[in-house]
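Hi V.,

Quick status before I head out on leave. The structure for the redesign project is tokenized and pasted below; the design run finished overnight.
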């Protein structure tokens, strides 16, 4: 009698963003078997957690017969303590203040659940299987609704004293600048985060009445999105190019600061805004090398993330594979 074949090991990755919650099933080589996304509820934290639970249960119900699901890894915005299982003050989830997700998940699943900051999770994916897999000292920036960061030192995420390290989107580059969702003014995020890019574009429309983006706004203001702003720049639209230049400049300023502070081998840019691609990164590189210290900028590669919008899901699964034998899980 032949022995039944063992089911392949997999893990669930969940990426919680201000706009979407992304969920997927990932194998031990970082390949996505299943992927889906859901709109992030605007209500209380319990509504967000309920969507996560539903997404995980759906994957378990559909795939546990074919695969051995070892656990789930979740990337949350805000200050995350992976040991305590707490998430505090995510800037783009305004109803969320201080939530202990241990209490919510502990009785829900029969496998371990791991959490970390969403940008750290993206950094783990890129360091393990992505653009940074050959490097030990990496800074990751994720440009989405907001701006997150991950500090990778000798292949390990640097979490700081209580899990809050890496809030790179909230360095102050202009204390008299625009108000950020975190409550401060002039954060890097308030210049290059997706919702702020759109807000600034709308404020410029009167100056550019012949712009393609102005035409979109006349039709429906909700059509003016980061994707359309990038498209406008590709078309040579003057307002699109103006916004592209501004975003690239401020991104470059941020990168220069990170190079000066951390002396990394590589800066990896991920998230939806990174899909602006070469036009964005080439301009940002010029600014970074202008404002960064010459001795530190030499040899630093500034690249687009390999996994783009799926990095959070892949990194969430990697949390499981990396930590399943440690005591940082939220177990039943």
């Amino acid at each position: 009698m032949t022995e039944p074949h063992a089911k392949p090991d997999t893990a669930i990755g969940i990426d919680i963003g201000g706009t979407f919650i992304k969920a997927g099933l990932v194998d031990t080589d970082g390949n996505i078997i299943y992927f889906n996304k859901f709109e992030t509820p605007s209500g209380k934290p319990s509504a967000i957690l309920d969507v996560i639970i539903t997404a995980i249960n759906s994957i378990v119900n559909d795939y546990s017969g074919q695969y051995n699901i070892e656990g789930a890894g979740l990337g949350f915005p805000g200050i995350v303590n992976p040991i305590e299982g707490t998430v505090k003050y995510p800037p783009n989830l305004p109803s969320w203040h201080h939530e202990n997700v241990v209490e919510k998940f502990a009785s829900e699943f029969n496998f371990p659940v791991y959490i970390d900051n969403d940008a750290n999770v993206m950094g783990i994916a890129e360091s393990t299987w992505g653009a940074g897999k050959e490097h030990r000292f990496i800074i990751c920036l994720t440009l989405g609704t907001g701006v997150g960061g991950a500090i990778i030192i000798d292949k390990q995420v640097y979490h700081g004293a209580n899990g809050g390290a890496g809030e790179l989107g909230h360095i102050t580059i202009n204390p008299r600048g625009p108000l950020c969702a975190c409550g401060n003014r002039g954060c890097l995020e308030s210049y290059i985060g997706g919702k702020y890019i759109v807000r600034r574009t709308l404020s410029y429309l009167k100056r550019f009445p012949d712009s393609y983006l102005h035409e979109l706004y006349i039709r429906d203001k909700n059509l003016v999105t980061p994707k359309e702003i990038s498209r406008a720049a590709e078309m040579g639209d003057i307002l699109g190019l103006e916004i592209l230049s501004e975003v690239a400049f401020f991104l470059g300023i941020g990168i220069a600061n990170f190079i000066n502070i951390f002396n990394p081998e590589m800066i990896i840019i991920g998230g939806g805004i990174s899909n602006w691609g070469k036009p964005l990164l080439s301009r940002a590189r010029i600014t970074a090398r202008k404002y960064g210290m010459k001795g530190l900028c030499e040899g630093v590669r500034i690249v687009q993330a390999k996994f783009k919008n799926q990095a959070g899901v892949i990194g969430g699964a990697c949390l499981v594979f990396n930590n399943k034998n440690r005591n940082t899980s939220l177990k039943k």
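Above is the designed sequence. The chain has a mean pLDDT of 91.

G. will cover questions while I'm gone.

Best,
W.
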